[in-house]
Structures are given as structure tokens and as C-alpha cells.
Specification:
The protein is an alpha+beta fold. The protein is globular and about 45 Å long. The termini are far apart. About 35% of the residues are buried.
Length: about 200
């Protein structure tokens, strides 16, 4: 199985990126927490990966840290949670926030994520309660640095990222109203998600 990819970042179309490894381009889906920290296109990138083989194809999921990948794998073990929903969970909550929500059994934080209803949130909390702490080392104080700003078409990238996460266009555009004109993609997505979580 493919466990790690190191190469040149060719394209960023959230949540998917394209990484060139010695002339082979790998399409990799990443959570927003990883997307925030990607270098500019043309830069070197190294990701922990999870390879999913299904009848309709092979899919690669990439993560900035081993903790993110370990959490993703734990999420996949929860009944009814597929790779797309696991990615949405990690895009809506950091590993720390998810661990905290599980420890405190806060279903309210999970239902704010698109596609997660009350029953799914409760099932997640129940099934992750004994697993998440064991799967992850202490994450206290871990902070990921924000990526540098983006190109002038940042607004469309931000909108596409929010739509890919399951928000509808009305919600996404509403969340983007307060963004500065020169906001970067990473900061814009982060600020929009913050606004959506308060809504």
C-alpha cells in the first residue's frame, strides 16, 4: 500500500491536490487542516497517505501529520462513516478539537459538520470514546502554521472548498461576506468555517 508521497505540488483544487512524483501525477484528497499548510504550487510536499481500493477505483487521501491519518483511520472504523465523511470531520474539526469533543461527549460540535446528523454524531462519540485516546499520542500544544496567501482567484477557491465540504452555495457565500478582499485561500477557508460553525 502507498503510505507516503513526496514530490512537487502541481495543482490545488480543494479538497483535491495533484502531486508529481518522478513524472507520475497523484491525485490526493486532503482535509482542510492539511490544505491550510500546503506550500505554493511548485513547492515540495510530503504527505502521510491512506490508500482506499473500491470497485469504482483507487483513492489516495493525504495528511500533514501521522496523527491526522491515525484519526482518519479510526473514523473509517465507525459504522456508517466512509472516507468522504471522515475527511469532512477532519476538515471541520482539528484532531485536538475532535479528541476534546469525544472526551467531553459533545455531539453539538459534530452536528455542525455537513453530513453529520444527531444519530451519526452520537455513534461517532460512542465508538471513538475508547479508541481515539489510544490511537493518538498527546496532542497538547500542537499548532499548525498557516500557509502563505493565495492568488487573486482566492475567492473562487474558498467557495469551491466550502462546496466540497458539503455546504450549499447560499451558506458558503453568506460565510464569505465578511472576508477581506485580499484574503488568502487558507485564511479565507478558516475564517468562513469559523463563521459557519457559529451560525
Amino acid at each position: 500500500m502507498i503510505g507516503r508521497i513526496t514530490g512537487t505540488l502541481l495543482e490545488k483544487n480543494p479538497p483535491q491536490i495533484l502531486v508529481d512524483v518522478h513524472g507520475v501525477g497523484y491525485e490526493i484528497d486532503v482535509p482542510m487542516s492539511t490544505f491550510y499548510n500546503l506550500p505554493a504550487t511548485g513547492g515540495a510536499v510530503s504527505l502521510h497517505t491512506h490508500h482506499v481500493v473500491r470497485e469504482d477505483g483507487h483513492f489516495l487521501f493525504g495528511f500533514a501529520t501521522d496523527e491526522e491519518r491515525a484519526t482518519f483511520r479510526q473514523l473509517l472504523k465507525v459504522s456508517g462513516i466512509g472516507a468522504r465523511m471522515a475527511l469532512a470531520v477532519l476538515s471541520g474539526l482539528s484532531v485536538n478539537d475532535l479528541a476534546q469533543a469525544v472526551a467531553l461527549q459533545e455531539a453539538g460540535r459534530l452536528v455542525k459538520i455537513p453530513g453529520i446528523g444527531k444519530k451519526t454524531a452520537e455513534r461517532l462519540l460512542l465508538e471513538l470514546r475508547d479508541k481515539l485516546g489510544k490511537a493518538l499520542p498527546s496532542m497538547a500544544g500542537v499548532r499548525l502554521a498557516a500557509a502563505p496567501g493565495a492568488a487573486p482567484d482566492a475567492k473562487s477557491d474558498i467557495l469551491n472548498a466550502l462546496l466540497a465540504l458539503g455546504y450549499n452555495e447560499r451558506e458558503a457565500l453568506s460565510a464569505m461576506k465578511g472576508l477581506a478582499e485580499d484574503v488568502g485561500v487558507s485564511d479565507g477557508i478558516r475564517q468562513a468555517l469559523k463563521a459557519l460553525s457559529k451560525g
